[in-house]
Amino acid sequence: MAEQDVCPHLDSIGEVTKEDLLQKSKGTCQSCGAGGPNLWACLQNDCPYVGCGESYSDHSTLHAQAKKHNLTVNLTTFRIWCYVFQPNTFFFYFKFGHPLKAVPIAVAEEEGSESEEDELKPRGLTGMKNIGNSCYMNAALQALSNCPPLTQFFLDCGGLVRTDKKPALCKSYQKLISELWHKKRPSYVVPTSLSHGIKLVNPMFRGYAQQDTQEFLRCLMDQLHEELKEPLSECSVGGDGSDGEDRRDGDRSPSEDEFLSCDSGSSSDRGEGGGVGDSELLIQDECDGVRSPAVISEKERLKERRVPGSPLRGGSQEMDEDADVDTAAEEGSPERRAEDEEEPAASPNTEPDNEASMAQPQSTPCSPVRTLQELHPKLSSSPPRSSPLRSSGPAYSFKKAQLLLSARKKKQSHYRSVISDIFDGSILSLVQCLTCDRVSTTVETFQDLSLPIPGKEDLAKLHSSIHQNLPVKTGVCPDTYGSQGWISYIMDSIRRFVVSCIPSWFWGPMVTLEDCLAAFFAADELKGDNMYSCERCKKLRNGVKYCKVLRLPEILCIHLKRFRHEVMYSFKISSHVSFPLEGLDMRPFLAKESPSQVTTYDLLSVICHHGTAGSGHYIAYCQNVINGQWYEFDDQYVTEVHETVVQNAEAYVLFYRKSSEEAVRERQKVVALANMKEPSLLQFYISREWLNKFNTFAEPGPISNHTFLCQHGGIPPNKYHYIDDLVVIVPQNVWEYLYNSFGGGPAVNHLYMCAICQVEIEALAKRRKTEIDTFIKLNKEFQAEEAPTVILCISMQWFREWESFVKGKDNEPPGPIDNSKIGVMKGGHIQLKQGADYGQISEETWQYLLGIYGGGPEIAVRQTVAPADPDTLHGERKIEAETRAL
């Protein structure tokens, strides 16, 4: 920064600490008594004055003019204002422990004043110590560390890394990134804290056994999303722009303590548990290459160990249309249905061949194509709940109570995080019946693409189908061998095992990454034992399944499926797959409806596996963002390598970043506008997180100031105390350029805590206290009764949801009481189901809860002189234990 750009009055600042300013921010104007926010403190040496700003009487300015004290600091944003040297006003920020520094808007802030040599010195070249077969973790962390959008978020938006969820893995990751990218970096670090946290999240990583790096990546990113996710405002969900796509729906029940495995490419915790049933997800059928949806329970995934994973990670929103194939397939734009519709399966009892575990390989036949009714946990939540407050209506029929389950759950919530913003994309998948031409369309969210590596025969079919524009099907399913069945399957397995042991140069042509992508997106014929169950025909029909990318992610993670697990053995596909370092074009695989403008990607990092399916070693090759050189990260050793070494690597996981010269030019324009130092009468606040997107994304999307605003346009009370971590001040000319270029908003010129939200919070707290106090009082009276004439039952599932709400663990109240799961119709009456999960309450307690939430049905257990039923005693003990906990 040139000397003439430095304010000459900086020398008049006395010694100021952060604690001093924070203490002053809690005070009032010394002239009129006005409170914050946006009080101003005089920075003149030994001057303790604090005055109000332009929102009140502007006593801070009057003080400066009278005393000739030129510098003052905003106690909310720590922005410095000089009354004399005004051109630089908007670019001074108070940095504790060192002099003030002018920071351009579109350039990341650096700590401390640094020499030019320090600025040019490469960072991020820190190794990681192997702490016991942890190369899978070290390689994954180094690959992620060299993804600028994610790393810059943790470096520049550290104030946004907040969570109250255990084990606070985001904090451990933030600390690790800070160590890796510190200017005084050590030669290596020991990632003990993060390793401990991931083992708490997923027990499969405990101990010192070798693990799969892709499974680790998925579990890590799922947990980071879970800890950092925030609900989208209605404006963000319903408005234009990318936010409508960049969302993950739903959340697990707060009472569900079981950690979910990431083995099949599932998100660890995206779905509402709630005991409704095992979650379903989309998996790739490994035995025939057909990307057919199949059903697998979370419990089964917990048993599995080493499954390279599913290509489609996320929920599916199904859309159906009855249209001619030309209209549906060529013109696209299928109409989204209001509800998800299940496509009946041809064989409901079939199990998926999900690249079975090394410990317990599966040999079950392939599943026919089916569409999911339940969304994958990553996107889905339970069905919407009814209104939280309902008056007690007419008596409930048991049939109506059973139907209530699909309508009682919480309203579907939309969530986003820095993880979903960076890595989430979506795929448009279509299945067409070749008899009636009906097309079933599904939108599926993915966080990585798991691509098959085609063999010699598959490549020939693939290239032939591309030239002839025909469907292609690679691989073989055990059920397609005809009358010979298992004999043919075993013989083919032996053949493939022998082929896998022969070097790829001996038996097959070179495979490119584009070949793998083409194999994944190729159309699949659904016929024979894998016919399509058509909803319109109500029969099994021949069909075609094909898919395209609907929205491309900012960073595209590609996983090559090198590991195969058969009935009697496991093996690794060691074929070399060539991949481009620059210019990976995804346009051939893009749907016509796609809003993505940038379709070209450059390689950031690649994870390689050396060894066999049973054992081996992971390393990572990453391009340094500062000097553009490639480096090999082998645990604690970091070595510079030539790009040809990278190109010859045996890639397993690749990270590609969108490449856009236009985005670079946009940043340069903003820097130029900021350096103009044009005086303006208005100051604008902009989301710090969106500004990080602007600095690192090729397509940052509309300005998203709703991340720090409530629906009323103010600051939510829970965010007000750290609002300076959420916003950045920009001059008027910069704001106008960004707004005209990207849209979004809203414009914010004044920060204030929302009084409406504060009243709502106080009302909610009062409601919770009233409900919990009343319940405790009524239940104590119930426990004091020696022989109650009537005892009523309540579902413990609903009770736990209500308990989470009144204890403040869940912000939304539960839906209507749902006793349908604990009752059974016998002899025209509703009776308690044997072994049901229920609790016992008094009639007064039932009427109190029913009056607030409604629901039903009422299930009574009448007291008799006979010995107490074990189920009855069990239910009483449950409620008594819950009351003590309350």
From TrEMBL:
Ranges where the DUSP domain occurs: 661-754, 763-865
GO cellular component, one term: perinuclear region of cytoplasm
Biased composition (Polar residues): 357-366
Catalytic reaction annotation: Thiol-dependent hydrolysis of ester, thioester, amide, peptide and isopeptide bonds formed by the C-terminal Gly of ubiquitin (a 76-residue protein attached to proteins as an intracellular targeting signal)
Comp. bias regions, Basic and acidic residues: 244-255, 297-307
Coiled-coil regions, chain positions: none
Disordered: annotated segments: 230-368
Matches recorded under SMART domains: DUSP (SM00695), ZnF_UBP (SM00290)
Predominant location: cytoplasm
Gene3D superfamilies reported in the protein's UniProt record: Cysteine proteinases, DUSP-like, Zinc/RING finger domain, C3HC4 (zinc finger)
Enzyme class (EC, first level): hydrolase
PROSITE patterns recorded: DUSP, USP_1, USP_2, USP_3, ZF_UBP
Record family assignment: Belongs to the peptidase C19 family. USP20/USP33 subfamily.
Protein name per Swiss-Prot or TrEMBL: Ubiquitin carboxyl-terminal hydrolase
Originating organism: Oreochromis niloticus (Nile tilapia)
Native organism taxonomy: Eukaryota, Metazoa, Chordata, Craniata, Vertebrata
Name of the gene encoding the protein in the UniProt record: USP20
